[in-house]
Write a structure and sequence with these properties.
With 219 residues, the chain is an alpha+beta fold. The chain contains 2 helices and 10 strands, in the order ββαβαβββββββ. α1 crosses α2. The two termini are 21 Å apart. The structure holds fe (ii) ion (FE2).
């Protein structure tokens, strides 16, 4: 399993933070396989991208109108090409494709999956502002531009309040952990075998800054 571009090196954007025992920050995307460890429900790794790629993505996120692209693809990621029109000819489209296709292939290899669902969202509104769990086996999430996803350590979660409309899920004084931009996360959901009631509790960061976020799901 060799990504077509080098996405394995450590990125300097990841700060050295202490994470909860059920979450692991690794140095390389090949270590994302750690998600198979039963005690973990989040594993992350930094993407290594050239400054020119980062610049193209950032410019695209800020210059192209908000959009949401959703497409089913094979493990080869060929259908991701259909997202390019959303970038309106902007160089950020090709920059995204160069990062996204190896990630889709890696995710497909990890789960021996033939069909995947890719979503790319450029938005200035939080997509899921309340802490929640996903009813999926495992979701790849990477914030390409903007602030990364937030999550809670298990001791800070009040699971009974998941799905409630008003009361916060997080305990008072909870530590809110956050992924860095270009940090790929595998978020274990409620549908992972024997993970019911243990899915990673996470949300989108607040604020109205533009974010470019990609997710990949098993279909
Ligand atoms: Fe979610």
């Amino acid at each position: 399993m060799t990504p077509a571009v080098d996405v394995s090196a450590r990125s300097s954007v990841v700060p050295p933070l202490v994470w909860p025992a059920h979450a692991r920050r690794t140095d390389a995307v090949d270590d994302l396989v750690d998600i198979y460890e039963p005690a973990l429900n989040l594993v992350t790794a930094p993407l290594d991208a050239d400054a020119s790629v980062l610049e193209a993505l950032t410019r695209a996120a800020n210059e192209v109108p908000c959009f949401e692209f959703v497409k089913e693809t094979s493990g080869a990621g060929e259908a991701l090409e259909y997202a390019l029109p959303w970038f309106e000819g902007h160089a950020g489209g090709r920059a995204w494709l160069g990062l996204a296709q190896p990630l889709v292939r890696l995710f497909a290899d990890l789960f021996e999956a033939e069909r995947l669902g890719v979503r790319l969202t450029s938005s200035d509104k939080p997509m899921c502002p309340r802490f929640h769990v996903d009813d999926v086996v495992c979701r790849l999430v990477v914030t390409l531009v903007g602030r990364g996803s937030e999550f809670l350590g298990e001791p800070d979660v009040r699971r009974k309040l998941l799905g409630a409309k008003e009361s916060p899920v997080e305990r008072e004084g909870a530590t809110i952990h956050q992924l860095a931009p270009l940090e790929v996360g595998l978020f274990k959901g409620e549908a992972w075998p024997d993970n019911k009631g243990r899915g990673i509790v996470h949300r989108s960061p607040a604020g109205s800054d533009r974010r470019l976020v990609m997710t990949v799901d098993l279909l």
